[in-house]
Design brief:
This protein has 2 helices and 5 strands, in the order E-E-E-E-H-H-E. The chain has helices at 82-87, 89-93, and strands at residues 25-34, 39-47, 58-60, 75-77, 110-113. The strands form 2 sheets. A 3-stranded antiparallel beta sheet has the order 3-5-4, with no helix packed on it. The chain has a two-stranded antiparallel sheet with strand order 1-2. The protein is elongated, with a radius of gyration of 16 Å. The two termini are 33 Å apart.
């Protein structure tokens, strides 16, 4: 599995407190389970700035091998269109998969935080640091 990151120069960070510096935001992922034709991964974003906060965060990437997001907790995609899954190449490849509950089949998904009202949702919420309307506080403000 390969990964690479590039900064989107058109987006300006929105935050308050101390300005964010290079290295203040850490994004890492762990593949927690692998199967013959899929895997489960956990993506974690942390704010390591002592006092700066990040508001309205979003995360996106380009899939390299036609992957999809079948299920997700603690965040959601900006587009939830199962038609892309069913009618696209993924639907032809995985013709026995139930795409009615698939989260996203875009080649470049955008992930955002959940709204606060979903914090106790048994399907997507109920995980630490979830559901803050896109606010990522530093540890000093949110121990």
């Amino acid at each position: 599995m390969d990964t690479c990151c590039t900064k989107n120069s058109s987006e300006q960070p929105l935050g308050s407190g101390l300005p964010l510096q290079k290295g203040d935001i850490t994004i890492f992922y762990d593949v927690t389970q692998t199967f013959v034709d899929n895997y489960w991964a956990q993506v974690t974003i942390s704010n390591d700035n002592p006092l700066g906060r990040l508001d309205f965060w979003n995360l996106n990437w380009d899939w390299q091998y036609g992957e999809i997001i079948y299920a997700m907790k603690g965040a959601e995609t900006t587009e939830q269109d199962q038609g892309t899954c069913i009618n696209g190449p993924i639907g032809k490849f995985y013709n026995n998969l139930d795409f009615s509950i698939a989260t996203n089949c875009q080649s470049r998904p955008t992930i955002i935080d959940l709204d606060q009202y979903k914090i106790n949702d048994s399907q997507v919420g109920r995980i630490p640091f979830c559901c803050r309307n896109g606010t990522l506080l530093p540890v000093s403000m949110d121990p």
